[in-house]
Structures
1.
Amino acid sequence: MASFRGFSVVMTMVLTVVLGGCCVGGHGVVIGPTEELGICASAVTIYGYKCQEIQVTTKDGYILSVQRISEGRRGNGGKSKKQPVIIQHGVLVDGVTWLLNSPEQNLPMILADDGYDVWIANTRGTRFSRRHTTLNPTDQAFWNWSWDELVLYDLPAVFDHVFQQTSQKIHYVGHSLGTLIVLASLSEGKLVNQLHSVAFLSPIAYLSHMTTPIGVLAARSLLPEKVYGLLGIAEFNPKGKEVGELLKVWCTHPGVNCYDLLSAFTGHNCCLNSSTVELFLKNEPQSTSTKNMVHLAQTVRSGVLAKYNYGRTDYNLMHYGEINPPLYNLSNIPHDLAIFISYGGRDALSDVKDVNRLLDHFKLHDVDKFAVQFIQNYAHADYIMGVDANNIVYNSVISFFKKHGSV
Ligand SMILES: *[C@@H]1O[C@H](CO)[C@@H](O)[C@H](O)[C@H]1NC(C)=O
Ligand SMILES: *[C@@H]1O[C@H](CO)[C@@H](O)[C@H](O)[C@H]1NC(C)=O
Ligand SMILES: *[C@@H]1O[C@H](CO)[C@@H](O)[C@H](O)[C@H]1NC(C)=O
């Protein structure tokens, strides 16, 4: 696409901001209106959709923001009992990323127009989910979590809320980390009773073959010691000074092209619109916790799906009663759960080899309940922002939901 040139220019700008550590305040908030208005008013209702800002509190006190798009542009189309869909973003971004393309192109609005009751989740620590019943983002304890806590608290909080409000089984769409946390949860026997079906886009479980150069470097250097040392139990703010320093070091390595950070992280996305990318960069990246990044780095290095490793035998013993962190065993996922998986041939984070290893776990899955789509020229970000993702991916997701929607 012709957008690639504009793309690198934008990337250079981002890099300047990131590396220079200038301009942006502590929380990396860049644009004004969205901040005041919230996601519904700034990105959804302007197109004629009904959208409600909702707050869901986790058992460990985080107040998460969720957007419910309960009606499409054509009203509710006479459907009284709509099926709910939860849409979960990946790491270092928030729910806004789903909404950057036109209503005809983005997943939440397509689902709403198709008569689904859509719920967009925003993980703890991202721009609209930075509140807690007792803690502040400036407290260390606010950032004392990894993706284990997203499995243990964030997901169940959102699922329970949607289930209570709708009294209906739920369809789920996850991208990237949004797939990993559900896989982990299902492997522990959770969520199954609340689910109609699950769609995994750019699935992540194993990360050993990840090809993104900057990701590989990050995985090598983000050790548990960082949580106690340099970075501390703290916010991992991609636009902050500390992370900027790290990026500076990583960017000097041969083979790392920091002039195109989005590609450096996600692979060569085939189908992004440069205007959408610009919008993306105004809204993202978002913060997560250092501990979460360290846990992801462990997932890359260890080649297994396990709980957070404290990096010290005594700490692991104290937290788990075992020397090694317990594994999430994907073989426990019920064989009759409806699962759709779509993965791309150019995805630098969700490498084809790693996805194949994940697919191995589903060899015994009911064939009627399992669908796999492979898109040769897709990379990681195409799944959320690709101009043709509507025709290529989302239509397939919706067909799958229709097939597996009745009880
Ligand atoms: C972080 O949480 C662990 C429990 O998972 C606790 O042992 C530790 O004291 C906490 N640290 C901080 C700074 O809150
Ligand atoms: C790219 O985005 C711009 C601005 O939203 C829009 O006018 C244009 O039609 C988009 N192009 C494609 C191919 O979707
Ligand atoms: C995972 O679970 C399966 C059965 O659900 C079991 O056969 C296998 O031994 C388990 N693997 C590990 C590593 O615990």
2.
Amino acid sequence: MKEHLTGSGRTKFTLEEKDMPTSWYNILADLPFQMAPPLNPKTMEPVTPEELASIFPTAVIEQEVSKQPAIDIPGEVLDIYRLWRPTPLVRARRLEQALGTPAKVYFKYEGTSPVGSHKPNTAVAQAYYNKKEGVRRLSTETGAGQWGSALSMACAFFGLECIVYMVKASYHQKPYRRSLMQTFGAHVIPSPSNSTASGRAILAKDPESPGSLGIAISEAVEDTNKHPGTRYSLGSVLNHVLMHQTIIGLEARRQMELAGDTPDTIVACAGGGSNFGGLVFPFLEPVLKRAKNAKESVPEGLHSSPNIIAVEPEACPTLTKGLYTYDYGDCAGKVPALKMHTLGHDFVPPGFHAGGLRYHGMSPIISALLHEGFISARAVKQLAVFEAAELFARTEGILPAPESAHAIRTAIDLAIESKESGKGQVILFGLSGHGYFDMTAYEEYRNGLLKDIIYPQSEIDKTLSTLVKKERFDCCRPLSPGKEG
Ligand SMILES: *Cc1c(COP(=O)(O)O)cnc(C)c1O
């Protein structure tokens, strides 16, 4: 373990390769409550592992439901992780100084991966398990292109074909992300497309549809079912994805020890929840274990140490305004229904610049942790996010992904609160990626072309009422026995 010294004190806390964690943390082993099972979208009965076998490899299905606390990271995956891991933990001293705060602000930086985000942590693992089980081709969807680039790279490493349904609006607005995927050898199709029945159905209704993640997922799953030797891969939301991302928090826990500090508050942005879960789950481990041992009588205040905050855009307020209920993960109802915070599966988000935070649903584990009071959530406005991103770039020299800048905004707000109250605190936030492919957004911000978009409550009510009427999941099948009353 190395500590890099600078004139003003230690800034960067780097682990040696040999100190990199060799297993992922499985939070399912420690949850002090029951998770509601995924349901078959047709029968509304809990899905069986056999039903999932047509879209996922066996190893991934096992991980999705495993209660084993630690799962070994395969050697071949570790070898690839070592191309960029362990990633740095940095004390943002220059940002602290600019804010004049007594708070200590740390960030864990995942933008040092080859594609510039945390996403390869699971892409590499998923490509590995598929390859091992004889799969030849992986099908997926991508919004802004970050997940698509991560999976394209992983498929190139393992010699798999990769097909990516890219939300049409992004396909045209982000030509360089598309080009990166194609450089890795992937086949990229703008969604909705004519290649699938779900794509054609959307185009028949609206030939100009800009697409959505929900639509692209339906297309990718349909493609999987139609082509032999193909499996589907998802970049967020599901339990196994969040588990693969825990390498972030496991490293950060050791690095915080090196720094000699314990975080009072941990902040990360949440789209489907994978970078958030990856960073915070290892820090929640002791809290959950205590709660589990305490059984019925959970002492007051136990839930709130450390204070853990998920941040989302006001334009896609899944955790702060969505309903906690069963909903489909995609638009056409082809993938299992999950109990989660949702804005409705036909939600098409307004155009704002954080492509990775535009999904209608949320990880079921994170939804349940919020419901049970172990974490909290905040929504922030777009202009304030870019203002924070710019300050961060000017003080720390890293141009953040607009998604990650949601976490920066909140970390800055907390540091300012510290200044006002005069109480120092240790803040850790997740910097999930860099924003060097998002220069158009930065340019629009500087030219005053960006607006604050707040998804109107009336729209939310409308979508949610159709969701409840159409599906009535909660009314006909109360799950999570004893919890929902
Ligand atoms: C995809 C992405 C996100 C959002 O996805 P999560 O699964 O919620 O982490 C956030 N930041 C970056 C940089 C991303 O690429």
